[in-house]
Design a protein that fits this description.
Largest sheet: 7 strands, mixed
CATH topology: Maf protein
Oligomer: single chain
Order of helices and strands: EHEHEEHEEHEHHEE
Radius of gyration: 17 Å
Helix content: 25-40%
Number of strands: 9
Number of helices: 6
Distance between the termini: 11 Å
Structural class: alpha+beta
């Protein structure tokens, strides 16, 4: 039997680390240094997949599988990144209130000689909020390090009306896509660890 590969999470996101830990997977974090600029005319889902690939490749190591992710929030055809300050966060939340947006997460697994990628798309609806509620939410501090200025798993649960698609994708790590990519590498998730596929 092959030795179980080490896992490297190429992300500084505490939400992604939390999800991997909940699955019982052991990993180390290696923050990638990747230019996250979008290319002219690039579709958001293509950009998310490309950036996830770049992040995974940047963290690759012998005997390990590197996991790269990138999440983009899109509203009205415009990509909403992480807010640069409190005022921008309030504007983003107010913009998203009472409407639908899309969350695209690219995910990639990389070894020194192979890369596999996928992308997950989820539709999200915010309930209607007034400007005071937008301000109150941002005052929690939760939105400041998140694309689109919200986190579904925290206080943001009070402003998300419904979703269509993968909840974990909105958190930044589509779990079923991750397990699918492990299978492509010949590994099966066995609750608390990886084993070779039959």
């Amino acid at each position: 039997m092959s030795r179980t590969p080490g896992l490297i999470l190429a992300s500084r996101s505490p939400r992604r680390a939390e999800l991997l830990s909940r699955l019982g997977l052991q990993f180390v974090v290696r923050v990638p240094e990747v230019d996250e600029s979008l290319r002219p005319g690039e579709r958001p889902d293509d950009a998310a997949e490309r950036l996830a690939r770049d992040k995974a490749i940047s963290a690759v190591a012998e005997g390990a599988i590197a996991i790269g992710c990138d999440t983009l929030v899109v509203h009205g055809g415009e990509v909403l990144g992480k807010p640069r300050n409190r005022d921008e966060a309030v504007r983003m939340v107010c913009r998203l209130q009472g409407s639908e947006h899309e969350v695209h997460t690219g995910i990639a697994l990389a070894t020194p000689d192979r890369v596999e990628t996928s992308v997950e798309n989820t539709r999200v609806w915010f309930r209607r909020l007034d400007s005071h509620e937008c301000d109150e939410y941002v005052a929690t501090g939760e939105p400041m390090d998140k694309a689109g200025a919200y986190g579904i798993q925290g206080f943001g649960a009070a402003i998300v009306e419904r979703i269509e698609g993968d909840y974990f994708n909105v958190m930044g790590l589509p779990v079923q896509r991750l397990l699918e990519l492990f299978r492509r590498f010949g590994w099966r998730y066995a609750f608390h660890g990886l084993v070779e596929s039959d």
